[in-house]
Structure formats: C-alpha cells, structure tokens
Amino acid sequence: xxxxFFHNQIIGGSGSPVAKKSxxxxxxxxxxxxxxxxxxxxxxxxKKARAEKDPNAPKKPLTAFMLYTNKRRPExxxxxxxxxxxxxxxxxxxxxxxxxxxxxxxxxxxxxxxELES
Length: 118
Hints:
Blueprint: H1 2-11, H2 25-30, H3 38-44, H4 64-79, H5 85-98, H6 101-106
C-alpha cells in the first residue's frame, strides 16, 4: 500500500530512523556557505587566556607520595641498576600502594610551627 512506501522511507526497513542525506560540498559552496572540517573548527575556537603565574609565589608542598618516592628512589635504582626510570617509578608506586596508612603517615613530615615574637 502507499503508506508502506512512505513508512519505509521515513522509518526504514528495520524500524530504525533513516539518516538524513547530507548535502554535498557543491551544494554548500554554491550558496556561499563556508565548508569547514572538524579540525578547522577546533583550530578556530578561541582559547581562554591564562592568568600569568607570579614568579614570587610560594611553591606548593610535596605530597606524601612524592616525599616517599624521593626517599626510596636511590635505593631502588641501586638494587635495579639496568631499569629505566619509568620502571623504577612503577616499582615505587607498587610499594606505596602496599603500605598501610600508618606507614604512609610516617613519611609525611610534621609541619613546623611558627613562633610569633611578642
């Protein structure tokens, strides 16, 4: 019947919607529209201006993991002389993961308190 033809055109034979036919480049360019690729669109996006970092700002303190890594790296490098630094870091990371919370807390230094002169 006539409605089956239109139903198949709109819905498709399997019941899923049929993708709309995209216009070719010649159709768009004939209307004066600019055709951009996905890469060109990304390149045209404006990036947010970053705030400049203050060179005199204090640095953030090292994390417990970084302090542990700095302490353990020479020993691990000595024991595994032929390994790359990435493999050594992997070993140290596995060691850190196996430590208990109490052992991790030991590697965190206690902050120094400032004494105010009165």
